[in-house]
């Protein structure tokens, strides 16, 4: 019995020596914990882990633990860590709206205190957005938007007074009325409605409604949800719809309909039309959206990188942020995921081809004179309710032909209730 | 003696644990989510569900789908099974061919039919190349909800009739040839035998087939989403939307409970009205 005990003790000693050796051997590399609500789909995750972060790890001899996480889980975890003072997160990657919430709660470090990031100019609008609640809350990381794609053949049927140049650059003549006339011409010439929208259940149609046409007509996303300007807009939509391909209500993404030739003009998220442009780069161009009476409303989705207060490795975290915002890194991200760079230098590093077509269109849209930039409001769990009100309004007014005033009276109340409940001002 | 009386219970235990864990607990959870608010009993969620713009449409459409699809499938399956129950050359091949759609998921089936019938899909191209039509016929889109409805019915019949067929065929093969031979000896023709022997003896199979198909019809979801988007709201899809898009687990639970409730009622009706008749018993 005693012998057995001795052997066991010896084994334990040997084991602990080996184990401690392993621990200290591995411990030399600091691990940066990077939680992100972005780049979460499996193929993007694989890209981040295998391609994006590897060169960084090698360059700085740092490990990065990339943790894809849904927004609500991120907030819960960060709140817990900030309250107990045991912060384990070094870098947070999230959308502007989420950053706004975290900064308002006082959970984010003021990045003004960190050293300058060299050799890059952040796009001015993005940089402006990243300063809030009295601090520099995040570094702009990636952006995305929704644009129009035009099959070059459609330019043959442009309405009078509108030139290809107007559409490509987003001049003042490229209006929603011009779009209606163009769509009419196309239907008359081809016998088929040639305009398409992703209005299927998984399509991003609601973004068009609240982020594009609403602000273009009313100047606001939600504030004038029920207003004479909104009625005017809905009447326009009713007029436009006969020239929209009826299958739109089943489409979730416009890439296929464009490639199959079912539509010649489509609106969708840049990531969802990327495939069409990559497949036939000579056939399609990306153009700014039309303008309405109040300007050219469009959504900019902006993701940023932040460091939570009390982060265990803030200097290493800053190195990661520096790496992720380098122009060449940003081009790599664009190539793989369709998210656009936030630094101006990146556009000079783009190869000729489909990506350039996309990037040019996005740039043209962002630099139009009458741009009315819209950020998706951060409503947390109420986000779905918010967007579904627009969809319901569309279905009832345009598809079912209900009286717009009656529908807006009813849904406007629900819209107001969402914002009142959250204590957020209507955008 | 005591140990022996314990054995049946022990043997039942895994099933009971399974039922409690995977059905009982979620069911209680669903009731809890549906009928409480802040821990107290409340009908608030029910009101929210019933006042949803899509609720009644979804309920009506779901019942309509079941009412159209299930009888057609049953009729078709009985005819096919009677046909396949004879011996002829190529019978096995025929059965295989009939069963193939069973292996395809509803979403995949939806995609197949969508690409067949889309404006520039196979069917339209064929029609246009043959000169039957000049412009594509639209099957999808809000304006064409009736067509969408029939495409969904068609796709469901194509996809899920085989499950009914398999059950009915198995039932047919269980019928002892002796009954039929005896009837033949007494001069009963094909129709008499079908009406008085085959169909009554098939009742248990018809009952199970109907229950299975109706339950699935109440859960119809993927195929509708692919072929009609939300043009035709159905219960399961609305429940999913409440949960995923609107983050309202309470209302989603109500949808789930309604699906479960209707299924239960229909299954009970089938059991009551399609009580199996055994020839031995009914022969007086």
TrEMBL record, chain A:
Note the Pfam families from the entry.
SBP_bac_1
**Does the record bear Zinc in its keywords?**
no
Instruction: Check the record and name the InterPro entries matching this protein.
Output: Bact_solute-bd_prot1, SBP
Q: Which keywords appear in this protein's UniProt record, sorted alphabetically? A: Cell membrane, Lipoprotein, Membrane, Palmitate, Signal
Family annotation (SUPFAM superfamilies): Periplasmic binding protein-like II
Q: What is this protein called?
A: ABC transporter substrate-binding protein
Automatic annotation (TrEMBL), chain B:
Q: How does it sit in the membrane?
A: Multi-pass membrane protein
Q: Which Pfam families match?
A: BPD_transp_1
Annotated compartments = Cell membrane; Membrane
Keyword set for this entry? Membrane, Transmembrane, Transmembrane helix, Transport
Q: Where are the transmembrane segments?
A: 7-28, 63-83, 95-116, 149-172, 210-230, 250-271
Which segments constitute the ABC transmembrane type-1 domain? 59-270
Question: Entry's InterPro entries?
Answer: MetI-like (IPR000515), MetI-like_sf (IPR035906), Sugar_ABC_transporter (IPR052730)
Quote the cellular component terms of the Gene Ontology held in the record.
plasma membrane
* BP-aspect Gene Ontology terms: transmembrane transport
Keyword Nucleotidyltransferase present in the record's keywords: the answer is no
Q: Which family does it belong to?
A: Belongs to the binding-protein-dependent transport system permease family.
Protein name listed in UniProt = ABC transporter permease
């Amino acid at each position: 019995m005693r012998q057995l005990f001795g052997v066991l003790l010896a084994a334990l000693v040997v084991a602990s020596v080996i184990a401690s050796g392993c621990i200290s051997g591995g411990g030399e590399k600091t691990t940066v914990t990077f939680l992100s609500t972005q780049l979460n789909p499996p193929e993007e995750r694989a890209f981040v882990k295998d391609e994006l972060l590897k060169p960084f790890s090698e360059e700085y001899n740092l490990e990065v633990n990339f943790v894809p996480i849904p927004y609500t889980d991120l907030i819960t975890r960060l709140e817990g860590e900030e309250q107990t003072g045991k912060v384990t997160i070094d870098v947070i990657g999230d959308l502007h709206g989420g950053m706004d919430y975290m900064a308002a709660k006082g959970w984010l470090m003021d990045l003004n205190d960190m050293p300058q990031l060299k050799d890059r100019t952040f796009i001015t609008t993005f940089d402006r957005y990243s300063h809030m609640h009295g601090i520099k809350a995040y570094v702009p990381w990636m952006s995305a938007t929704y644009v129009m794609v035009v099959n070059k053949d459609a330019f043959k049927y442009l309405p009078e007074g509108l030139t290809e140049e107007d559409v490509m650059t987003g001049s003042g003549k490229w209006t929603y009325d011009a779009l209606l006339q163009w769509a009419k011409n196309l239907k008359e010439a081809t016998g088929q409605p040639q305009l398409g929208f992703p209005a299927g259940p998984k399509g991003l149609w609601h973004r068009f409604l609240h982020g594009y046409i609403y602000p273009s007509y009313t100047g606001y996303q939600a504030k004038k949800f029920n207003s004479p300007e909104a009625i005017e807009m809905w009447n326009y939509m009713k007029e436009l719809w006969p020239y929209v391909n009826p299958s739109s209500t089943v489409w979730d993404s416009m890439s296929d309909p464009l490639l199959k030739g079912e539509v010649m003009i489509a609106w969708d998220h840049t990531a969802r039309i990327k495939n069409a442009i990559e497949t036939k780069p000579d056939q399609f161009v990306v153009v700014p959206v039309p303008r309405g009476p109040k300007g050219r409303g469009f959504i900019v989705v902006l993701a940023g990188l932040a460091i939570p207060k009390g982060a265990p490795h803030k200097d290493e975290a800053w190195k990661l942020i520096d790496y992720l915002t380098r122009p060449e890194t940003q081009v790599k991200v664009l190539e793989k995921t369709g998210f656009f760079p936030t630094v101006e230098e990146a556009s000079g590093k783009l190869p000729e081809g489909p990506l350039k077509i996309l990037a040019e269109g996005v740039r043209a849209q962002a630099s139009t004179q009458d741009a009315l930039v819209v950020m998706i409001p951060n409503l947390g769990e109420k986000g779905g309710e918010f967007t579904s009100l627009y969809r319901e309004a569309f279905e009832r007014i345009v598809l079912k032909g209900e009286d717009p005033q009656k529908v807006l009276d009813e849904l406007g109340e629900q819209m107001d209730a969402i914002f009142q409940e959250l204590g957020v001002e209507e955008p | 003696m005591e140990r022996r009386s314990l054995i049946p219970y022990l043997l039942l235990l895994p099933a009971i644990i399974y039922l409690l864990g995977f059905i009982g607990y979620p069911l209680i959870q669903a009731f809890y989510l549906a009928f409480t608010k802040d821990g107290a009993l409340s009908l608030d969620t029910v009101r929210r569900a019933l006042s949803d713009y899509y609720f009644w449409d979804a309920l009506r459409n779901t019942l309509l789908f079941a009412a159209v699809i299930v009888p057609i499938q049953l009729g078709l399956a009985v005819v096919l099974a009677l046909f396949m129950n004879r011996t002829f050359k190529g019978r096995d091949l025929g059965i295989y061919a009939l069963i193939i759609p069973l292996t395809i998921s509803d979403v995949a089936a939806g995609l197949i039919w969508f690409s067949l019938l889309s404006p520039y899909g196979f069917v339209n191209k064929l029609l246009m190349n043959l000169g039957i039509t000049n412009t594509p016929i639209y099957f999808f889109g809000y304006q064409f909800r009736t067509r969408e409805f029939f495409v969904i019915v068609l796709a469901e019949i194509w996809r899920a009739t085989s499950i009914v067929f398999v059950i009915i065929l198995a039932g047919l093969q269980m019928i002892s040839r002796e009954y039929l031979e005896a009837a033949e000896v007494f001069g009963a023709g094909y129709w008499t035998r079908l009406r008085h022997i085959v169909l009554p003896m098939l009742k248990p199979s018809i009952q199970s087939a109907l229950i299975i198909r109706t339950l699935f019809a109440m859960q119809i979801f993927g195929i509708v989403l692919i072929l009609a988007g939300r043009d035709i709201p159905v219960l399961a899809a609305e429940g999913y939307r409440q949960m995923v898009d609107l983050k309202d687990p309470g209302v989603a639970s109500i949808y789930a409970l309604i699906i479960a409730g209707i299924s239960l009622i229909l299954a009970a009706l089938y059991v009551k009205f399609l009580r199996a008749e055994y020839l031995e018993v009914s022969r007086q």
